[in-house]
Write a structure and sequence with these properties.
single chain, mainly alpha, 0% strand, rod-shaped
């Protein structure tokens, strides 16, 4: 019977174990490197999205400031015999144009839906991202208030109380000016809510962008 060389056998087993451990270590390093690269790409995309959102909100802010100013100028002229009432016509039509905001949140949704949000292991960064995108829900609620006024009041008013032929003849074609005045008062209140929501949205963008910059996230 052949004698087993236990020392040699244990040596072979040890070599196999070390080899497997090294292979696992290499695979883990590769996975970690892949996950880190994926995380960085997500963060770059989020930064791009937030910068685009900030630009859109800043543009909206200027439009809303103009609309509030126009509403303030128009209201004293309505339901009066003011000689300069025709100067309000273009401003009234301007007030009726909606100012929309659609956030660029596809990257954030992809992070959540794919389960990759776990790749972001910085708790403070993760919390800041979640808080920012949650703020968009509040912004859109305030934007929706004006959309409801447009749908329920502005549309029907223009159908039933506007004479475009009179405008063509240089006359004030808005009928039932008292109703129009009430609608614009409601719209001005909605503009002010949208303005505050837009300002908060810009502040939230700045907070997240500042955080990403401190983390070294570059475009």
């Amino acid at each position: 019977m052949k004698k087993i060389n236990w020392q040699y056998t244990f040596g072979e087993i040890l070599i196999v174990i070390i080899g497997i451990s090294i292979a696992f270590g290499i695979n883990k390093c590769a996975d970690d490197s892949k996950n880190e690269a994926q995380k960085q790409q997500y963060l770059v995309n989020i930064k791009n999205d937030v910068e685009a959102d900030k630009l859109a909100l800043e543009a909206n802010l200027k439009l809303l400031e103009d609309k509030i100013e126009n509403a303030t100028e128009v209201l004293p002229l309505l339901n009066t015999n003011a000689s300069n009432k025709m100067t309000a016509v273009s401003k009234i039509f301007n007030l009726m144009q909606l100012t929309n905001f659609t956030p660029n949140d596809n990257t954030y949704k992809a992070l959540i839906n794919s389960g990759d949000f776990k790749l972001i292991d910085d708790f403070e960064l993760k919390t800041t991202i979640e808080k920012h995108y949650s703020s968009y829900k509040i912004i859109q609620q305030d934007y929706a208030r004006l959309e409801n006024i447009q749908k329920e009041h502005v549309g029907p008013y223009f159908i039933h109380n506007t004479d475009f032929d009179e405008f063509s003849n240089g006359e004030f074609g808005f009928k039932d000016e008292k109703l129009l005045k009430n609608i614009i008062i409601s719209m001005r209140g909605a503009f002010e809510l949208k303005l505050k929501a837009t300002q908060k949205g810009i502040e939230s963008c700045d907070i997240l962008l500042d955080f990403l910059n401190k983390k070294g996230i570059l475009l």
